[in-house]
Design a protein that fits this description.
With 219 residues, the chain is mostly helical. The protein has 9 helices and no strands. The chain has one domain: Orthogonal Bundle (MetI-like fold), CATH 1.10.3720.10. The chain starts with a helix and ends with a helix.
Length: 219
């Protein structure tokens, strides 16, 4: 196989591909951070909320986890515009991925908090800690060790799911690559290249997660 034409076209398209990569990274980081922040509150509501709150949050989690990401993206882009909330394709995509991420993180947090003995919360109350202090100083450090491995898997899923945003016109890495392919007809070469780039992104996330896991592990 002659790679010279591919390398030439890769160099010519470097700016478009880098722009697509930048959007992929930005979408993924924003969705994971916002989804994690929201997911923590979802998990807390599922664990410590009253019965109506737990029911509402359970419906939220089950609905989002049972809905394909593709459908969520289309719903956020098209349905919200019908009800008067005009979001750009980028914003709608981030919203959809954030909601999807929060449902998974919420379930992860709920499971981790449930695994902590209730006596530790009672002990924290007995020495005058508020719920916020109890969560920050007692519950979160213990839950984090259980949350982290699954959270890393969720983060990598969000990176892969970002490729679906091309359907609403977000020029992330995959769509940018497809645009280059439509001009060069070098399908195999560019798809192998973009697959390798996604592998590198997810590999870096996994390695960072393992480094943090080693750092917070109990000797």
């Amino acid at each position: 196989m002659n790679f010279s034409p591919f390398l030439t076209e890769l160099w010519n398209a470097r700016m478009n591909l880098l722009a697509g990569l930048g959007d992929t990274v930005l979408i993924s980081v924003a969705s994971v951070l916002l989804g994690t922040f929201l997911g923590v509150f979802v998990g807390l509501a599922m664990t410590y909320g009253n019965k109506p709150t737990r029911f509402g949050v359970r419906v939220y989690i089950d609905f989002l986890r049972g809905t394909p990401v593709f459908v969520l993206i289309l719903a956020c882009f098209y349905i919200l515009s019908v009800v008067g909330l005009d979001l750009s394709a980028f914003q709608a995509g981030v919203l959809a991925l954030t909601m999807f991420c929060s449902s998974h993180v919420g379930e992860i947090v709920r499971g981790a908090l449930k695994a902590i003995p209730a006596g530790q919360t009672e002990a924290a109350k007995s020495i005058g800690l508020t719920f916020g202090q109890t969560f920050a100083y007692v519950l979160l450090p213990q839950a984090l060790r259980q949350i982290l491995p699954t959270w890393v898997n969720t983060a990598t899923e969000i990176v892969k799911a970002s490729t679906l945003l091309s359907i609403i016109g977000v020029v992330e890495l995959l769509l940018a690559t497809q645009q280059v392919i439509s001009r060069t007809y070098l399908s195999l070469e560019f798809y192998l290249f973009v697959g390798f780039v996604y592998f590198i992104l997810n590999f870096l996330i996994e390695q960072a997660g393992r480094a943090v896991e080693r750092r917070i592990s109990i000797p």
